[in-house]
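In this section we walk through a basic example: taking a raw amino acid sequence and producing a predicted 3D structure, encoded as discrete structure tokens. The instruction is simple. Fold the sequence below.
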Amino acid sequence: MESVEAYFERKAAELGLLNDSLKVPLSLTSPRSVAEVVRQKFRLTAALKAEHALGDWTATETAWAPVRHRSGPFEFMYDYQRADLEVRGPSFYDLGAHPIDETVYTSSGMAAIAALLFAFAKLIDQAAMFLVPGSYGETRELIEGYVRHLRPIIHDGALDDVMARSSPCQLLLVDSSAPASTFETALRLTHPMVDLLIFDTTCFSAASSRIRRVINWAQRWRVPLVMVRSHTKLDSLGAEYGRLGSAVFVDWEKRASAAPGWKLQSLPAEMRNALRLLGGAALPAHFPPFAGTPAYRQLTDKRMGAILRNTRRASRYFANALPGLTTELRFVHGLYITLKSAETLSEDTARKLAATMSEELGRTGLPIRHAGSFGFDFATTEWFCDPASGQYFIRVSVPDLPAAFWDELTEAIAKWSLKQKRHPRMHLRSSLLEARTR
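The resulting token sequence is shown next.
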């Protein structure tokens, strides 16, 4: 278990890595509180973005200047509106010997999967898209509402239909936001009848062993693999450096050329074309200049390890302290848990109740905020819609904190939840009143 002293030493190293990326480093003091860590980290990332804007002032939408633009280890080449953006630099992933044939960077994770799914319209007339339970809600919304050439099939935990051929072309989407049991069920499939695996890795650390397990599974069953990702949440040391996404084609030339029945090998080119038409190319300013180094990978791994340990501690504590008030405590990513209210919630009341929790606990000095993201040095609360039941809950995203600090916060969350259980209408009225006065 990491000591408080070791935690602040690690945070000083993170701040040092950010500061060293500046051409003119700031004068920093060693942080002695979580609030100081957060303040300095976001101040440094703002300084990095400002310095990039001032130093790379020729990097407009049209590449009119004969200059190659850079952000740290990344180099960019493009013509008009970045429609032909080429990026040279380190991969965010640490895949060992697994080859990456091509990476397409986008302006967000949703831009990556949208361009990928739209690209299929040029390659196939129709395909079955198998989705495991717990897949990211906006991905499901995109497929069901706007990608009509893909027929979504949402399974229970068995995934039996993936073992049979019901469509000339069959795709499987595995999402890192799924519950642990569902994820493991997908990886136990043998001889799957799918022509392509799309793997959303957003909620896994880029060096996660689970990513390598999925790659090994795809290679074992000779299934071509594309990994899509939002880099905003976990790839910038908890500071949300900028909106950035990607699609990575793993061992593509070998696997795609062997796919029968359709021109799968042209999918990267068609995705780039769809991305051009959708206007979803990546922004060079959103590539964190501190990424890719051994120090960055080591610090990221330590951050993720601390968050995962804290999630396990919180899951055990809440299971005992909040009987009947928890929903999912074992998401496969280990980044957040979900809590029930004593009363049925709508999206609006769940959002406001989450805001009330973070505001009331935050006023006591605890490191918690109301925010729709995760992977920070503070806990966050937000509404959560269970894809299976359609019910709304409160999501608590676990922070990178020393165990002593996190234990204090989990106890406070439990006490708040029990108080809300005893007086649910009081808390709902309070949250609605605060929302109206803001």
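Looking at the output, two observations stand out. The chain has three domains: 4-55, 69-286, 295-437. The longest helix spans residues 294-321. In the next section we compare this with other chains.
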